[in-house]
Amino acid sequence: MSVPEDLTTLQTPPSCTADFCLIPLGTPTASVSQEVAAVQRLLKKSGISYQMHAGGTTLGTSTLSSLLSPPYPISHIL
User: Fold this and answer.
1) Domain range spanning residue 58?
2) Does the residue 8 lie in any domain?
3) Is the omega angle on the peptide bond into residue 13 within 30 degrees of 0, that is, cis?
4) CA-wise closest residue to 64 among 22, 10, 28
5) In a domain, 3, yes or no
6) N or C, which end of the chain has less CB nearby within 10 Å?
7) Is the residue at 2 inside a domain?
8) CA-closest candidate to residue 35, choices 66, 78, 6, 1
């Protein structure tokens, strides 16, 4: 099975869940507090359902495209 170049056209089920965590690579400290705060602000503005937990953040939405498309593309912060 091949993956389409434009992931926003992927067919998704009625709901979509994504989980991610931030891992600092090539940085002078292990802290990601500023990045986590930026992601939280973006998620609050977006209206996407989310739950932050010790291991990362879980997102819930009706479509994958709402996670990847403007006005609040999560990928541009990460």
Assistant:
1) 13-23+30-76
2) no
3) no
4) 10
5) no
6) N
7) no
8) 78
pLDDT tens digits for 22-45? 888 888 888 888 888 888 888 888
56 lies in a domain? yes
Flag the least confident range among 13-27, 28-42, 58-72: 58-72
Q: What integer pLDDT is reported at residue 51 of this predicted model?
A: 92
The model's pTM is: 0.58
Sign, Cα dihedral of 45, 32, 17, 3 = positive
Q: Which of 19, 33, 21, 65 is nearest to 46 (CA)?
A: 65
How many domains does the chain fold into? 1
Classify strands 49-53 and 56-61 as parallel, antiparallel or unpaired.
Answer: antiparallel
